[in-house]
Structures are given as C-alpha cells and as structure tokens.
C-alpha cells in the first residue's frame, strides 16, 4: 500500500511544473488529486480493477469532452478573428486611400491660397468665438432672469406669510386664534425661512410663535410676536430690495458686455464680407477636404486600433488554447501513469 501512495506523490510532484506553467480552471468538480484519493481508497477497500479503471475512464472522458468543446470554440474564434481582421484591414486601406486624395487636393488648394484667404480664415475663427460669447452671455442672462423671477416670487410669498402671521398675532392678542392656526402658520414661516435662506432672521419670530400658547401672559406674548414679525417683514423687504439692486447692476453689466460684443461682431462681419469675395471658392474646397481628411484620419486611427486589439485578442485565444490543451494532455498522461500503477498493484495482489 505504501508503494501506491508513494507513486501517487511522485507523479503529482513530477507534474507540478506543468501545473504552474499552465494554471488551468476546469469546469465542474473534476480534480486529478480527487481522482488519486478516490483510486487510493478503492485500492484500500479492494475494489475490483474494472471499477477503479471505470473511475479513470470517466475522468478521461470528461477531459476529452472538455477538449472537444474547446476545439469547437477555438475554431469559431479563429473564424471570427480572420473575419474581423480582414474587415479592419480593408477599412484602414480605404481610409488611407481617401486621406491621400484629400491631402493632395488640400495641398494644391493651399498653394493657391493667398494672404487674403488666410486672413478670412482667421476672421471667421474670431467671429465664431465672439458669437459663442454672445450666446453664452445671453444664456447666462436668461438663467439670471429666471433666477430673479423665482426669487421675487419667494420674497413675495414670504412677505405674504409674514403678513398673515401678523394678522394671526393680532388675533392672538384678542384670544381669537386656535392651536391649529398657530401650527399652520409656524409651518408657513418655516418654509419661507428656508426659501429665502434667512433662517437667522426668522429664528426669533418662529420661537415666539412656537411658545405662544405656553406663555402665562398670552396677550403680552402675542404683542411681542407682532413686533418681531414686523421687524422680520422689514428685514425681508430690505433683503428683497438688495436682491433687486444686485439684479439691476447685473443687467447693466450684461447690456454693456453685449453691446461690446455686438460692436465687435459687426466689424468682423464687415471684414468677412470683403474677404469672402476673394476667397469663397477656395475656402469651400479647403473646408470640405479638411473635413474629409479629418474623417479619414479618425476612421484610419479607429480601425487601426480595433485591428491591433483584435490581433492581440486572437493571439490570447491561441495562447490560451495551447496552454489549456497542454494541461489536459498532461492530465491524461498522469491518469495513464496512475492506471498503469493500479494495474501493477492489482497484479501484485493476485
């Protein structure tokens, strides 16, 4: 029995280098070490040789089936690789031809292009930049206007809420308000506080309103509440006035900037009109061919990258296939050695 165990260990160690070289991940629960243990156990229990060989045959069948599946996958991978690489090669060649033609036309056109045409191109670049700036400040002003309108509604709602609270305070002085009204007004003032971002200013009136029904001198507390609310209203109106003044100043600055850009745009439009009569035809050719050349360059670069990626991936398929196939082959060698050892062991026991 010791001979058999020793043989199994020797066989495993002999193949350690191969396992490390090709670290494989097999499907299912197949394991050569498990097979060794199972065979060893069957030998110990004096199982028939056919039973032990059946275990080994099942293992070999599993390896063969896995290899067959891998062969099919690898064949499909190779076909896909050939198709993809062929397509990308044709795309690169097509883009290269287009780029060559476009560059030839561009070179001829640029030779004919004079200082006037170059000046026109620069003028158009500046004009585009100015137009973008005009669009930008218009967009910013539009956003500022919408923000101001929202702010105006917020401040107006806050003042209305304060006025309602003052009316409630007067009613409290007369003892004509309920707890429900106080709670509802507290909610409205809290919402106004958050909306106007004036939490600190609203703090004292809110505290007074929250404790109004707990005061021994309810009428006096209500009068103090009204005073606090009147002060709060003045603060909110002041904040609104400041907000409006800031918006007015921003509007004046916007108008100044826009007038400056519009004046610049007018001068550039005039220059462009004078230069266009001399350069329109050639500039059109250059614009079109530049776009064609850029598109061809992008197409070439994109497809070259995809070509390289496909080649790398396909190479990895080859490496994987060879490595895993070698690993399975070594498994079979190991199983054959184990099978011979089992047969020798069986012969010794006869």
Secondary-structure element pattern, one letter each: HHHHHHHH
Q: Roughly what percent helix?
A: over 70%
Number of β-strand runs: 0
Kindly state the mean pLDDT as a whole number? 81
Q: For the report, how would you describe the main beta sheet?
A: none
Given helix and strand content, the structural type is: mainly alpha
**Oligomer, anyone?**
single chain
Low-pLDDT runs: 1-28
Q: Tally the helices.
A: 8
Q: Termini distance?
A: 14 Å
Molecular structure report:
This protein has 350 residues and is mainly alpha-helical. The protein is flat, with a radius of gyration of 44 Å. The longest helix has 132 residues, at 218-349. The two termini are 14 Å apart. 91% of the residues lie in helices and 0% in strands. It is built from 8 helices and no strands.
Short description:
With 350 residues, the protein is mainly alpha-helical. It has helices spanning 2-14, 16-21, 32-44, 49-112, 115-173, 179-196, 199-210, 218-349. Helix 4 (49-112) packs across helix 8 (218-349).
Topology at a glance:
Blueprint: H1 2-14, H2 16-21, H3 32-44, H4 49-112, H5 115-173, H6 179-196, H7 199-210, H8 218-349
Helix pairs in contact: 1-8, 3-4, 3-8, 4-8, 5-6, 5-8, 6-7, 7-8
Question: Which key terms come to mind for this protein?
Answer:
mainly alpha, 8 helices, 350 residues
């Amino acid at each position: 029995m010791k001979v058999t165990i020793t043989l199994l260990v020797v066989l495993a160690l002999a193949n350690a280098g191969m396992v490390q070289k090709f670290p494989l991940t097999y499907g299912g629960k197949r394991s050569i070490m498990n097979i060794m243990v199972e065979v060893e156990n069957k030998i110990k229990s004096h199982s028939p040789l056919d039973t032990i060989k059946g275990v080994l045959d099942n293992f070999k069948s599993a390896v063969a089936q896995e290899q067959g599946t891998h062969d099919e996958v690898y064949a499909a991978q190779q076909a896909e690789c050939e198709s993809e690489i062929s397509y990308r090669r044709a795309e690169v060649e097509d883009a290269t031809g287009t780029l060559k033609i476009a560059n030839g036309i561009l070179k001829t056109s640029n030779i004919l292009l004079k200082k006037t045409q170059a000046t026109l191109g620069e003028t158009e670049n500046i004009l585009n930049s100015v137009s973008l700036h005009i669009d930008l400040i218009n967009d910013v002003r539009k956003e500022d206007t919408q923000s101001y309108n929202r702010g105006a509604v917020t401040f107006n709602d806050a003042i209305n809420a304060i006025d309602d609270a003052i009316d409630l305070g007067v009613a409290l002085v007369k003892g004509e308000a309920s707890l429900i009204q106080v709670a509802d007004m507290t909610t409205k003032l809290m919402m106004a506080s958050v909306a106007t971002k004036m939490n600190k200013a609203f703090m004292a009136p809110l505290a007074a309103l929250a404790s109004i029904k707990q005061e021994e001198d309810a009428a006096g507390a209500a009068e103090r509440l009204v005073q606090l609310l009147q002060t709060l209203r003045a603060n909110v109106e002041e904040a609104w006035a400041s907000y409006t003044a800031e918006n007015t100043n921003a509007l004046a600055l916007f108008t100044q900037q826009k007038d400056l850009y519009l004046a610049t745009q007018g001068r550039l439009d005039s220059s462009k009109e004078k230069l266009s009569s001399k350069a329109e035809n050639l500039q059109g050719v250059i614009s079109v061919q530049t776009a064609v050349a850029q598109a061809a360059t992008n197409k070439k670069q994109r497809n070259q990258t995809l070509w390289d990626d496909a080649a790398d991936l396909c190479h990895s398929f080859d490496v994987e296939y060879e490595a895993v196939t070698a690993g399975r082959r070594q498994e079979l060698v190991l199983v054959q050695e184990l099978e011979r050892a089992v047969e020798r062991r069986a012969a010794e026991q006869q």
